[in-house]
Design goal:
Layout: H1 2-32, E1 38-40, E2 43-45, H2 56-65, E3 75-80, E4 95-99, E5 104-113, E6 127-129, E7 141-146, E8 155-157, E9 164-173, H3 175-179, E10 188-191
Helix pairs in contact: 1-2
Length: 196
């Protein structure tokens, strides 16, 4: 009887250990391993987002970090957590986002804090889009991103400190982008001024 209890205890510990290791490896995979896909400059697009071909990890990542994902024939989702110099984006720093409007029916760039939520701000401004970003004489848009704002242009306020992520959404992307998402001439994200 004592031998049976000892075997049961060992088996219970083995199963508990396997569960903990499995859960930890899944958490690490979902939160620490970069997304698969292709790059367009500093931006990465997951080609399986919203697809019926998406694997379980892709679906879990989207559930953790996004509200809804459509197939790439309808929407392309490009993300970045780095600026043009390769440095991680930080909420306490200021950046200039600029580029030509992407070839799509509608586009937007939204800033998210490291917890995957929007930055709370009194202005309730969380993104820039083709509707809100005026174009200059060369047909390019620009927007500031950061805790402070200089000038009278478009500004996406960030609060607090720590990492952040930008998501560029292209709704109704051009057929050429649907077939080769890496061909996007993506907006640049450049840090401006000193960063505390």
């Amino acid at each position: 009887m004592a031998e049976h209890r000892a075997s049961f205890a060992r088996l219970t510990l083995l199963y508990a250990g396997a569960f903990v290791i499995g859960a930890l490896s899944a958490w690490l995979w979902l939160t620490r391993v970069g997304i698969s896909g292709v790059d367009a400059g500093i931006w990465r697009v997951n080609l399986l987002a919203g697809s019926s071909d998406a694997d379980a990890y892709t679906r879990a990542r989207i559930a953790l970090a996004a509200v809804l994902a459509l197939d790439r024939s309808e929407t392309l989702y490009y993300t970045t957590e780095r600026d043009e110099s390769g440095e991680p984006l930080r909420a306490e720093c200021r950046y200039l986002i600029s580029g030509s409007p992407p070839p799509s029916r509608w586009w937007s760039i939204t800033a998210y804090a490291s917890d995957h939520f929007l930055f709370p701000n009194a202005a309730r401004r969380y993104s820039v889009s083709g509707e809100t970003a005026p174009l200059d004489a060369a047909g390019r848009f620009s927007a500031e991103l950061g805790p402070t704002h200089e000038g009278d242009g478009i500004w996406i306020p960030t609060t607090g400190s720590g990492g952040m992520r930008l998501t560029l959404r292209l709704y109704g992307p051009a057929a050429s982008l649907q077939q080769a998402p890496q061909s996007l001439v993506a907006p640049s994200v450049r840090r401006t001024g000193a960063c505390p």
